[in-house]
Amino acid sequence: KQEVTQIPAALSVPEGENLVLNCSFTDSAIYNLQWFRQDPGKGLTSLLLIQSSQREQTSGRLNASLDKSSGRSTLYIAASQPGDSATYLCAVFSTGTASKLTFGTGTRLQVTL
Amino acid sequence: KAGVTQTPRYLIKTRGQQVTLSCSPISGHRSVSWYQQTPGQGLQFLFEYFSETQRNKGNFPGRFSGRQFSNSRSEMNVSTLELGDSALYLCASSLKGDEQYFGPGTRLTVT
Question: B17 near B78, Cβ under 8 Å?
Fold first, then answer.
């Protein structure tokens, strides 16, 4: 059974800092991995999707990497801004359970002025 | 292109009642998935429909059911509501079941 863990659970950084969020999964047989952000009481916004054959994806100040063999992904946020404050979730599609995302518990990020 | 829409956005129901939630996917998307989000359990997969067929199901009791219509719109039904069913219910759509796009959710409170 796939399990997804995110560390740290919460993070507070001053504006302008670069930061890394971590995601690990127990079963390396995945189709892809998707990063989301969630604002309080809202739905999920897709940030980046990494296919299992890819090593990384970039969108603006965000860069996500994937190491399938070690069961890890990182989300790098450059030059953080207060608007980046949200909960960040990673989720994986596992082989054999296509269309079902298994989510991590999330990292709650606060960027302070 | 319009995003995923869910109705209603908020619901308050009493134990024992039943509820129906609706989800309209992004135009052209044929896959619709449902997730339950609670503070204690996080996000959990309920089921996924593709072209009107349930393709995958999570570990929820039979009180939770769903369906998909020919226009890809989907409904989720919960019968005999329990206090523990209070949650944010999220719907996601995708083209083939890959990259997921989520709606704003329906906040269900059971009293």
Answer: no
Nearest CA to B76 out of B30, B29, B23 is that of B23
Interchain contact, A43 vs B102, CB within 8 Å? yes
pLDDT at B22: 98
Residues 72-91 of B with CB under 8 A from A: 88, 90
pLDDT band at B2 (very low <50, low <70, confident <90, very high): confident
Total beta-carbon pairs less than 8 A apart between chain A and chain B: 61
**Each residue's pLDDT tens digit, A44-79:** 999 999 998 999 999 999 999 999 999 999 999 999
Q: pLDDT tens across B28-45, in order?
A: 999 999 999 999 899 999
| Residue (of A22, A18, A92) closest to A62 by Cα position | A18
Who contacts B103 (Cβ-Cβ below 8 Å, separation ≥6)? A43, B3, B4, B5, B6, B23, B90, B91, B92, B93
Nearest to A32 by CA among A46, A18, A16: A46
Inter-residue contact A19 to A13 (CB < 8 Å): yes
Confidence of residue A98 (pLDDT cuts 50, 70, 90): low
How far apart are alpha carbons A56 and A50 in whole angstroms? 7
